[in-house]
Task: structure prediction
Amino acid sequence: MEVAARTEPGLQQRQHSDAHLAESIAPNVVLLAVADGFGRVSRGLPTAQSALASLRDYLRRRHRARSYARIASPSSLRTLMLGALDHANRRLFDESGSHEDFVGSGTSLTAALVVGEHALVGHVGDARAYLLRLGNIELLTVDDAMFADATVPSAKSSRPAQPRPRGVLWRTLGTQSKLEASIAHVELFPDDQVLLCTDGVHRAIDDDELGDALTRGGTAADVVARILATARGRGTFDDLTLVVGRDPLGPTPMIKAGAPRAGIRVLLALGMLIIALLSFGSYALQHPFPDRPQNVTSSNTR
Result:
């Protein structure tokens, strides 16, 4: 999988409210996530960053417990994703000092856990996930917001393109003791593309334009740069966060977390052996061995 991610601060934001995550947390397991939060937790961390760290740590612990090797069904992955979101919600709710009559902090969060050909998309708030397949873009999440204008003025329309107003969120992570997150399962195919973004992006750029950006040439990093530049050019003052994953069934060029030490020692030994062989070959070319006389043996067998 080719992955690119970036967060850019808003023009009028004194503190960053957005955060992103793109990591390979186990062999053949990739976690992509974006979050847009408000407030801070007891450790002084921004809410979005703290929530993503809790989500990642929960899923990493499941890798150390070797549970991914036993998970084969979408229903098992769904249970795992729900558990991770519930853990992040409870931790944020406790650390922010929130209770039923007071909200200290909260965050929108959308995450895609890619395990082989399966993608489990967990969602709460108004961060979004999209899937591009065969040139068609599909929204995988529904905003947990009221009074939001669902239409975004497109560059293709006669109306001037500008960010639409933000709706009132009715569900976020960390603002209640129990969370009922939305989970969607997607079976992935070669050449699919997954896009996650916070509302600063999708309030400035409509779905069709996001699809067009994904289908244009260039790397995943090029796509991220084009989309963020377009959103910024339309005068949005909110933070902008975007994660793009291409060809999810291809090899993932990211460092695998928790690589066993034995495997590292084997790789080092192989590297030293290759260097020794190359050095010996170079010496042999510069100092050829003298020809030895051939021993000819003749025997008669009767």
